[in-house]
Amino acid sequence: MTEEFDRDLAVFTAAVQMSADARAVFLDQACKGDDELRLRIEALLRAHEGMGDFLDVAPPGIAPRQVYPPLAGMVPGEWIGHYTLVRQIGEGGCGVVYEAEQEKPVRRRVALKIIKPGMDTQSVIARFEAERQALAMMDHPNIAKVFDAGATESGRPYFVMELVRGVKITDYCDQKSLTTVERLELFVVVCHAVQHAHQKGIIHRDIKPSNILVTEMPDGVALPVVIDFGIAKATTNQPLTDKTVFTALEMLIGTPAYMSPEQAALASPDVDTRSDIYSLGVLFYELLTGSTPFDTRELLKEGLDEIRRVIREEEPLRPSVRLSRQTPSDQAALAQHRKTEPPRLTRTLHGDLDWIAIKALEKDRTRRYATANDLALDVKRYLAHEPISARPPSKLYLFGRVVRRHRLLFIAIGLVVALFLAGLIIVSASLARERRESAKSQQITRFLENMLQSAGPSVALGQDTALLRGILDRTAERVTNELANQPAIEMELLRLTGQIYQELAEYPKAEATHRAALALARPLYGLESDEAATSLNDLGLALWREGKLPEAETAHREALVLRRRHRGNRSREVAASLVNLANVYRHAHQPGVAVPLVQEALGIQTNLLGMESRETADSLRVLSILLGDQGKRAEAEVMARRVLEIRRKLLHPDDPLIAASLADVGWTIVKQEKWSQGEPIQREALALRLKLFGHAHPSTIESLNSLCWNLEHQRKYPEAEALHRQGLAFWVARGEGETAPALSRLDGLMRDLLVEKKLAETEQILNTALTPSLLGKTSCVPFLKVRLDLLARRRQWPEAAVDAALLLQYDSADLYRYHQLAGTLAGSHNRPAYDQLCQKIISQFADTTNRDVAERMAQVCLLYPDSVVASRLVEKMVDTAVTVTNGQPEYAFGQVCKAMACYRMGRYPEAIVWADKAVQGPYLHAQGKAYAVLAMAQWKLGQQDTAHAMLAKGDALVPHTPAGRDTGEDLGAWVGWIFARVSLDEAVDLINPAKLETGKP
Amino acid sequence: MGNSPMTQVLLAAEPLRKNPDETTQLLVAVDQGRPQAAEALLDLVYQELRQMAASKMAREAPGHTLQATALVHEAWLRLVSAEGRHFENRAHFFAAAAQAMRRILIDHARKRNTKRRGSSPESVEFDDRLVASLASPESDEQLLAVDDALERLHSKNPLLAKVVNLRYFAGMTNEEIAELMGISVSSVKNYWTFARAWLRNEVAP
Predict the structure, then answer these.
(1) The pLDDT value given to residue A405
(2) What is the band of A151 on the pLDDT scale with cuts at 50, 70, 90?
(3) Which residues of A touch B169 (CB under 8 A)?
(4) Is the pLDDT of residue A944 over 60?
(5) Residue A263: what are its φ and ψ, rounded to 5°?
């Protein structure tokens, strides 16, 4: 039996792989004299031919995996979802594109793109769904619409798009031999399309010639259309996993030539609109020169890492140079395709067009064109023979790039670093030579220390301490490696390095270095030596900064004991340790322990140095803060003023410590709520810090924050506004308008303007600030909220809907966002988007058991009659809204939902009962809506007079103009208004259609 | 390696948490050809997969489907100790897991069929969402028919049935199956092509 079976297997396996002719001959041979065998094999072969997807689709309950049908398996005539495949029209790295016919709801031809295997279908579709609302808002003649996404029966994701019958933009240009000017004009159109998408918060992520198709209009005008918006994001923007890297790699294999450096970095998750600008730059380059900036096909031979390196590091040749390096025959061909001659073409590209390309292709995205519009504008300027904004890079900038690329440490380093290096060299050399002359070595070390402290690296370098850190790290390493047999010198250098780490706020490194110094000091000078005390003190300071308070306390206590022994109870060192210890207790919130310590230190210091010394002033400052912490604010102020007075006598008027003292005094005054008295001092502190550190320093920002806070307390909004504006302008000019400090200025400015009721100005500021790239980040949410209210208040519903859709995407946890979106969609009569929203709500919230959630979501779904969602599910939510009370009284909005649901289902008397309840409630808009239901239900019951009366009441309560429209009070009131108004309009529609035209929202 | 009282308490509290060493010992026994060991292994893997599937389905929306391959791999990691994960053990384990997956799916298809014919929809158990998952009656009927035919195929040539189990029920690729069974990819393809045609004829009226 089994032998027979195994023979079947052998014969079938051989036969199935043969062509029909060969098979017949073979079967004659193999089955000679065994007709049954022949019958069995032929039956199997027939079964094989008619197999379809038998066993190739996963069993029920199981998600399909690798068992995809081969690509060739998709044949014209086959159905996918609502679509019939007509023919294959393209094949790319990402999948296969078919022309398909849609039957429902409209009959039309579409493009259907089936993503190739290897992607997690559910997350691809989920990501697409997340962006669907935003995609629906895109409406531009040069952008192909994406209609739908879904999964094939075998589980592969697919996308349905507007069908564009066109050719790749680069092919089109060459086929038509478009001149450079004509090419540029086409390019400008593409830029505008991309800009439109960016303004809706959508990034393409995969701009390349094959995604820009050109069709010719009947009048011969070329119409470029950008396709695949929203698809790259759905198929690539995965959380960082192995799979992401895999997909990113796939993209690299597909079309790495158009990939921006930040995309090529693979690890960077924050791809933004500027990535698209880069890809547009590559397209620009290719339209001009016929090749992409880097020959990725050539590079692919070197491997993917090489491509990634080149995209991220190498500077592309300027287009004109690139052209001149082509072979003469290639040059001739290129020129001919552009209706010109090689030398003229090179001359055309040279200069402005070179710089536009270079600017769009900057590695550093902050240096690229900020928007696609800016890029288009520069091209248009070129076309109009006006000066362009892109400039040839300066010598200094080019030099800087060389430095960056070769990581040469010694170029462009600040004075302090140079001195520091020189000092280190001197110290180590002289210490090595004159090992025994420790006095001298100490002298040199002290010199170095003084130099560093006087210049203060954090002050002199300000923004760029990275270089210094690098040198320090290397020094620390070298010290331990090279000075291993000279522990005394090693300890000195470690101590110095540790102190600089401390200065640079690198506290863990400072701690490690000081621990190493301590470990050397103890065997060298004795476990309880004065040197050990110094190291313990340094260590204690680092630990304190790290917040390791118990450890810091131990170190300082130990140092204090040793110093008392070696230096005497009334020494400067003991005083310093006392103050350091007090600081630890201050941070441990034990002012009671800290104050006596500082007082003891002050006693020693006044005795030794007099009242007016730097050290006394430092201690007084700590005391002042401690007093403030204890709520003794008046005393704290006196003390802070005393510190300021001493420092003014001793220090240069522009010393940072004076600025700090001014800030302290201002703070102690303001804490007593003597706002106006604190203001001039805070202003002085801010001015000095601005002069010393510039805008970006944390101290300056702190001063600015506290001054603005004060001004707002005094209701001096215009002045606070001016300060916020000034600060914001600084960050914007630096190209850092979207950083946290800039956004905090913007936030302050927006609030001040709102308090001042400068609504138009607020909107204007927000329009400038909410750039496409900011709209791509969640930090836009607070600003978006305000702009949405402003737009809605002015009934600019379609614009408001865009913001509301974005806001829902970022902030879907806040259920109010659903109301806002529904309201704006109602305002703009966007029924398809509203229906989609309802479906989304039902899929997410139909089963909710939370009363408030149910009530809110039911309100949205009941807004319009004949809603697309099943009324059974809506009623379920409505019932949750009125039955789950959790002991609280019934809520008017829940009641009005119930009333509306009853009305919609024809249960008019019941609707009236519920609406009557809601009318009793305290909520204006619930009442308005309830009157609408009452009017409609009474009308349906034939009570026409009552219906008219109810409608009139509702109209009176909820007038046709939204609340707060002219006063600016309660910006958010529009949502309730439009919800009520939509229902009232429905009632008007039913009862009094003639009045309808008078005023719909 | 006797169980401490503490472990016994834990095991009693969590009856489905298997001891990975136990599975490994079972796999060794299967490898040595001990009778009953294969049956015991299948039981163990079946219980675990069922438990895992139920907890996964409970977390997902109705209509969600399972990733068979992921499930089987997860079971491998959960049930077999690190030291026990040898190649030969892997082959035994995955064969058992594929068989167990098949049993689970068949059980559910049977349940669904019974429910369709018999009782009211309310009787769908809340914790058993696989039963409630979307599956057409036709696909369930077909699945049960395939299962019967597969039993007959097994009696004729166990190797072929194994390939079908691994591919259809555990969602493995030809390459993975070849590696696991120690045969060439083209053999797997040939077995699969034949088995599919054979089953098709058996299932089709």
Answers:
(1) 39
(2) confident
(3) 59, 62
(4) yes
(5) -75, -40
Q: Which amino acid is at A632?
A: K
The residue that leads in pLDDT, A141 or B31, is: A141
* CB atoms inside a 10 Å sphere around CB A454: 10
* ipTM reported for the complex surpasses 0.85: no
Q: Which residues of A touch B193 (CB under 8 A)?
A: 13, 16, 48
- Report whether A285 contacts A316 (CB < 8 A): yes
B193 reaches A (C-beta below 8 A): yes
Q: What is the pTM of this model?
A: 0.45
Among A206, A378, A664, A955, the one annotated catalytic: A206
**Residues B184 and B178: beta-carbon distance below 8 Å:** yes
**Is pLDDT larger for residue A434 or for residue A578?**
A578
User: At a CB cut-off of 8 Å and minimum separation 6, what does A937 contact?
Assistant: A899, A903, A908, A909, A911, A912, A915
How many Cα atoms sit within 13 Å of A802 on the Cβ side?
19
- Give the Cα separation of A473 and A471 in Å (integer): 5
**B20 in contact with A, Cβ within 8 Å:** no
Q: Does B67 touch chain A (CB under 8 A)?
A: yes
State the average pLDDT for chain A: 79
CA distance A590 to chain B (A): 46
Residue A2 with chain B: CB contacts under 8 Å: 156-157
**Gap from B42 CA to chain A (nearest CA, Å):** 20
pLDDT band at residue B194 using 50, 70 and 90 as cut-offs: very high
**A102: enclosing H helix or E strand:** strand A95-102
Question: Between A and B, how many CB-CB pairs are < 8 A?
Answer: 96
The yes-or-no verdict on residue A912 having pLDDT over 90 is yes
**Is A65 close to B169, i.e. CB distance below 8 A?**
no
Neighbour count for residue A23 (Cβ, 10 Å):
17
Query: Taking CA atoms, what residue in A is nearest to B189?
Result: A13
A422 alpha carbon, distance to own chain's centre: 43
The SS3 of residue A943 is: coil
| Minimal C-alpha gap between A64 and chain B (Å) | 7
CA distance B44 to A638: 79
Structure tokens at B48: 């675990």
Chain B interface, mutation test: which of A62, A66, A843, A873, most B Cβ atoms within 10 Å? A62
Which residue does chain A place closest to B200, by CA atoms?
A47
Please say whether the dihedral angle defined by the alpha carbons of residues A855, A859, A862 and A867, taken in this order, is positive or negative.
negative
Chosen from A55, A120, A241, A845 to mutate, greatest number of chain B CBs within 10 A:
A55
Residue carrying structure tokens 């103890």? A522
Task: Compare CB distances from A62 to B66, B160, B173 and report the shortest one's residue.
Answer: B66
Q: Which amino acid is at A914?
A: W
Task: Indicate if A206 belongs to the active site.
Answer: yes
pLDDT at A551: 95
Q: How far apart are CA A329 and CA A335, in angstroms?
A: 10
What tokens does A941 get? 């019951």
DSSP structure class, residue A79: E
Q: How is residue B69 written in tokens?
A: 């391959």
- Relative to beta strand A62-63, strand B66-67 is parallel
| Distance separating alpha carbons of residues B39 and A282, to the nearest angstrom | 63
Could you report the per-residue pLDDT of A607-653, keeping only the tens digit for each?
Answer: 888 888 888 999 999 999 998 888 888 899 999 999 999 999 888 77
Q: Do B66 and A61 touch (CB under 8 A)?
A: yes
Asked if B177 contacts B163 with a C-beta cutoff of 8 angstroms, the reply is yes
CB atoms B66 and A63 under 8 Å: yes
Give the orientation angle of helix A487-503 with respect to helix A466-482, to 10 degrees: 160
- At A255 the pLDDT is 59
Q: Examine the pLDDT at A824 and tell me if it is beyond 50.
A: yes
- pLDDT value of position B137: 60
Query: To the nearest whole angstrom, how far is the Cα of B137 from the nearest Cα of chain A?
Result: 10
Q: Determine the distance in angstroms separating the CA of A72 from the nearest CA of chain B, rounded to an integer.
A: 18
